[in-house]
Each structure stands twice: as C-alpha cells, then as structure tokens.
Amino acid sequence: MANLKLINAGKMYGNVPVLTDINLEIKKGELIVFVGPSGCGKSTLLRMIAGLEKITSGGLEIDGELMNDVPPAKRGIAMVFQSYALYPHLTVRDNMSFALKIAKVAKDEIKTIVEEAAESLQLTPYLDRLPKALSGGQRQRVAIGRAIVRNPKIYLFDEPLSNLDAALRVATRIEIAQLKEKMPESTMIYVTHDQVEAMTLATRIVVLNNRGIEQVGTPLELYEKPLNKFVATFIGSPAMNILPAKVVATGAVTSLTLANGAVAEVPINTADQYLDNDFSIGARPEDMLLTQSDEYLFKGNVSYIEALGEITLLYFNREEGAPVIVKIPGIAHFERDQELKFTVDPKKLQMFDALDISCKYHD
Amino acid sequence: MDSIVGKSSALTWAVNISVVLLVLLWTIPTFGLLVSSVRDKDQLVSSGWWTSFSKVERNLIKRSAPASEQSKVDDLYVLTGNVFGDKKGVVTAFGWRSQDPMAFIPGDSVPLRKGKMLQINADGSYLLTSPIPFTSKRGSRLFVTSIEEPIFTLNNYSEVLFAEGLGKSFLNTMTVTIPATIIPILIAAFAAYALAWMEFPGRAIFLAMVVGLLVVPLQMSLIPLLKLYTDVGIGKSYLGIWLAHTGFGLPLAIYLLRNYIAGLPREIIESARVDGANEFMIFVKIILPLTFPALASFAIFQFLWVWNDLLIATVFLGNNEEQLVMTGRLRELLGSRGGNWEILTASAFVSIFVPLMVFFSLQKYLVRGLLSGSVKGG
User: Fold this and answer.
1) Count of domains in chain A?
2) Residues A3-31: what's their mean pLDDT?
3) Distance from CA of A81 to the nearest CA of B (A)
4) Cβ–Cβ contacts within 10 Å for residue A7, how many?
C-alpha cells in the first residue's frame, strides 16, 4: 500500500504555476530523493507535503487519507530544514522536547524519548547547551533528533546537508543512511541538489524540472536508462555529452551523421518516418574511448585539462553547445591543443529524437 | 608614512580623539550636575563645581561669644572661643572691620577701639580682651578668611524628596510610567506578530495605516481626547493617561516590533508549526523570547518618553499632590526655588536616576546575538 500519494497535485503562486500535475506514489520505508535544477520546485513540493504550502490543485494522501487541509502537525510528518531552524533560546533538550510538550506527553516519557534519541545521535553531552554553542554538524543532528522524537510516519529533509562543509557532509550523509537502516519502517523524502547524496541515499530518485516530474526511478535506472535528454544530462557528473546528428538510415540499426561527418550506428529500432530528422546522440564522458583508427565518433583539440588524480577530464570546446567532456581513468598525459579521436561502444550510446525523448527507453 | 596603513592609523586616531571629545562634551555637564547636587549649599553658592574637590578659601563673618559669657582675668574682661565652633578649619587672615577683613595674619594681637585687643589663631581660637565690660548681646563681628575642606552631603536629596514633595511626585510618575510602558508593548507585540506572520486579508493596508499614524502630531488629538475622556468619565485620571500614552506609543511600537519579528527566520516559525504549535504558542514560546531585544529597546524608548513627558501629563492629569508628576513638580520648583541650585540639581538628578537605571539594566539585551545558533550564519 502506498504510504504517500500525490494525485495531480499542483501549485500556483497567484497566476503563476510552479508545479502542475504531480503524480507520485511513495511506498512505506522508501527513501525518495527529489532532485532538479534550482527553481524547479522541489522544495515547494516538499513543503506542500509538509503542509507549509497550500496545494492549489489535486490531492495529497497519506495512508489513504486526504491531507490537503490537515495542518502540518497532524500529518504524521517531521521536517528537517536546511538552516536547521533550531529554537535559539532553548537548550538542545528543550529543542527536542518542544513538540512532545505541545502534544502533552508525560514528563518522564519525554525525558526517556529525548535521551534515547540523543544517545543514538551522540548528542548526550550537549543536551543542556544552547544551539549557538554547537558546531554545524551537531546542530544538524539536533534538527534530526527533533524529528526523530516525534516518531513520524514520514521524514522530510530539505537540503539538510547543504550548509555543512565537505568533510562533514560526507560524515552526516553516512549518518543519515545509517539512520534510515535503523528505521526501515519510516519513509523519508529528501530534497537535494547534490547528485552524490541523491545517488547514494535514494531508494528511488524523482527528477523534477519545468513544473513537473521528468522521471522516477532507482539511481542506476536513471543513470543507465534516462527517459529524456534532461535526465540524461542532469544525472551523472560531468554531464552526458550531447552531439547533434541527422538520421540517415532507419531500421533495426539507426545510422546518424554527426556535424563533423562521422557516422554513428546505434542499435536502436526507428521507424522510416524519422529519416532526415534532427536527432541527437548522447555519450557519457566515461564511455568515450581513445582511438587511433579513422572510425571515430568524435575528434577534437583539447582545450582544457583537469587532472584530478583518480581521473583526468579533457574538455573540447565546440562552436555550439557545451564543451564535450571526456573522462579518462587515472593520470593521463595530454597537452593542450593535441588532437584526439574518440569512439563509443554503440550499445552505450543514447539517442534522443527531435523532442528530446529517448528513443531507447521511452515507449 | 604614506602607506595605506599609516593613513588609516592617522584616521583611527582622529576618530578615537573625536569620540573621546564627544563623550566628554556630553558627560561633563551631567557630571557637573551630579557634583553640584551633593555639595553643601553654602559652598555651591560661592564657587563652581569644578573647584569642589580642592580646599576652598572663603571669607566668613563670625561673631564672638555674647557679653554674658565674659570672664574677668586680672583687670581685663575676656571673651574666648573658636570661630569655627565645633568644626575644624584653618584661618589664613582675619580682621575686625568690614572694609578690611584680611588685614592681619593669625596669631597677631591687634588693638581695636577703646583699648580692646583681638587675637585670632590659625586654629580659629580667639581671644578678645577689654578694660571695660563687654556689652553687646550678640557678640562682636569677626572677619575671618579660612581654608575649608570641601563638604559633600546628601542633605539636598533628603530635602527635595521629603520637604519639597518630589518624593510623592516620583511615585506619581512611576504610577504613570510603568503601565504606560507595559500596556503598549503587550498590545504591539501581538499586533506585530499578526502583521508579520499571519495571513489575513488587508494586512498590507492595515500595516500602512499604522505606519501612517506615525505622522499624526499627537498635539492635534489632545483636546478631542480630553473631551472624550471627560464624557466617558476618565478625564484627569491615571487610567486616562495610560490609555493616552498607549495610543501615542503604539504606532512606533508596532512598526519597530513588526520589522524585527518579520526578520526572524521563517524556518523557525515553520518548524514550530510542524511541531504542532498553534499561533498563540508560537507567539508566546518562540516569538516573544526571540523578540526580547526589540521589546527591551522599545521599552527604553517608551519609558524615557513617558518619564520625561510634561505635555500629556499636564493635559490629562490634575495639578494636585496626588497627580502631579515629577516633570510638573520640577517646573514648579524652577519657578518658586529658581535661585536654590542645590534644590534644582538634586531634583534633576532624582529625575534622571531611574531612566539611567532602566537603560543600564536593559542595555545588555540591546546587544545582538540572541539569534545566533539557530540558523547558519545567524
């Protein structure tokens, strides 16, 4: 049974639609990550689920009950904010017991619950401190603790790690993953713009763009089988290279010519009507292989090299569009302006039609 | 020396020096007032407060003991005593005629009229001898120039507080000021929260109206208000003046507090809402504690304004002992005791004492930083 269900949910700010026709089912125990470019409405969607933003059309169901007009506290959710949103004048203990006090839980019980949560988050020594005497990571743990003590059905995380520095972010990310493992029954919805967080934490990822959902799927599904050009370029870092191409032969194997004259034969079935259409093919930076032969897919002069040690990134500027990026494992020695040729395993190529829909995975 | 560092340090010096000068300029008169208010009233009349820390030379007119205390030693009638009475002092010169009060040095024995002799010693003891009996019942005049220790006393304060009625006025002012500070703050805090965080139609217009009220001069409303009060039956009463001060203070209070409350991080309030708090709980448990610095600073403003107010008190309170506030009393003292500096300076200090205490006790809340720790960078 679905734990949370969005049915044609939409949000308008005045006359401006921010989200339209969101349909999503989240099962109990899932960790769903909302990703998308900034301004795509992922935080708004989370706040609609929390009850902090009104749902202007469609509905939200939690455990089969319509929640559109239920106040946040009665939805069985707890939210962790990006800025922690701790009560600055209350100690850690009072911060964590605030919700329970309002719910009129007995004092002894509050004490037990709070101390248990503090123990599991390693916050026990800080219980009587004010938030200002805590480090960023500790504050974020208090914010998580404040959510845990309420024992909600659904946890909502709004970019919880984006205020932490890189090292702490990794540590806290792992803590959240462990937290999830400890509570397999609880559902979590997590908003982030960080791909690594999305890929590592998510049971399923929801990619949002342009007022709606682009694709929902497990992290690797999104990586391997993007439904459209947006998801293809959004998931994966550096982004997938998109090369414009013209269809020259259709059938079981589609042939396309690229701008540079190279021919790509992609083992994807296309109908005859697509002949001469302007398609594009996509190749992940790590799938581009160096070649000496003349049957290359892409040829260019290196315009920029980023040596990261574990990998080397080569940038090839193009007259139009983003530069083509090639990821080569380990340390490789190239020089600027050196001419290089690359080929790609045809099975790994993606092909997008004129409407940016993937020909490979879309119905 | 033409480096940026050199220039900026010269500028720093200029800033520091001008700050010091400004502070001195502002505090010296107050300090003078304080010193004057604790000086002996005779010393206050004769010299400025800046001389009060050193010994002062004063010309005194004293009288010898009356004739009834004379004794006869050998053939002479003798009067003895000390010009300072029981106190101590040092005589630097003396005389017996008002034209020449500093004619002789202490220890000299000088002839007066009719064979009388006068000797005054440095310690103030005198010896007056005469071949014929003294007759003056009031004693003869002795002119003495003496060095006096500065005298500091709290007598001025006890006089103004108990004899001049300032104490009663002090209580009256308290009666006006405390409710007239608390009531508007309470109302304004509620209003400010609603105007900042609660959604209701017409909120923006409402706020604009409140801010617009700031430009209405309160003098304009005095007469209609007093008329209304008289009709309702609260003219010339404390209730009336509390309400008046509340009304006059509210626009600024609402405006200041709303701006502060609107600046609180939205997430804190949303977080409380998710935690199940209703608007009233959010206000009492989250907003009020966090708004304390703004409440304190407005409290200082309102308190000082009401404390120093004369106009509204004159209009809405009577001129009797039960209702005369301190500013009114000071005005009366200025008229009736204008020459008595010791009264005026002490009264002035009584009237600034409480505002100073209020300021110093609340000023720590003016320091920012209560919000730190709640949000990143806060």
Assistant:
1) 2
2) 91
3) 7
4) 15
Search chain B and give the residue with CA nearest A47: B270
pLDDT tens digit string along B342-368? Answer: 888 888 888 888 888 888 887 776 655
Nearest to A121 by CA among A90, A89, A87, A80: A80
AA letter at B80? T
Q: Give chain A's contact residues with B (Cβ, < 8 Å).
A: 50-52, 71-74, 77-79, 81-89, 98-99, 102-103, 130-134, 136, 139, 146, 150, 163
**Is 80 exceeded by the pLDDT of residue A1?**
no
In this structure, is residue A322 part of a structural domain?
Answer: yes
pLDDT number for residue B371? 45
- Judge whether residue A182 has pLDDT over 80: yes
pLDDT tens-digit map of A224-265: 899 999 999 999 888 899 988 888 888 888 888 888 888 888
- The class that CATH gives domain B158-366 is mainly alpha
Mean pLDDT of chain B: 85
Q: What is the CATH number of the domain that holds A322?
A: 2.40.50.140
Would you call A78 helix, strand, or coil by DSSP? strand
Q: Give a yes or no: residue A363 inside a domain.
A: no
Is residue A357 included in any domain, yes or no?
Answer: no
Contact residues on chain B for A132, CB-CB shorter than 8 A = 369, 372-374
Amino acid symbol at B26: W
CA–CA–CA angle B84, B85, B87 (5° rounding): 65
Sheet arrangement for strand A311-316: A304-307, A311-316, A324-329
Q: Phi and psi (nearest 5°) for B175?
A: -60, -35
DSSP type of residue A153 = S
